[in-house]
Amino acid sequence: MPDWPYFEGQKLGKYWSFPYRGKLLEDKPVGNFVNLDSGLLFCDSYALLKLKPYIIKEVEIIPTNVDGLDLNILNLINLIDCLDKEKSVIEYFDEIKEGIMDVEEYVFKEELLENVTLFKLPQLSRSSIFGTNQFYSKVKEYGLTGLKFELVSSTP
Question: 120: which of 16, 57, 126, 147 is 20 to 30 A away, CA to CA?
């Protein structure tokens, strides 16, 4: 297993562990979620306790310690090819056929997101994590902090 996998939706197994000693930035407050990598979610035990019933089938939980804090990596293993490429505004890499460089306007195939809380798109699996309204409402209901939400798609 590599020191730092790409976190593209694959399970890493119980034998992989966070191989680095992380250090939090001194000027940032620590919330229930900590931003250390754009393609990963790091959360504390309280957030995991509250959200686990909703996300357990969509993540692999990897316990770790960062700067003395016991955290959990929520490795997203739920890849759903639900991007409506015809209706979305997409910028492609010239040299890679179907390689998505950026999505300026997301339109999802909503029927593929029923009963989903967290997911990644296979085309953007190294970077973007998407949460549905269910995830957003549970984070707000439990008063969890440390996440920044951006509305990327809405149903009319």
Answer: 16
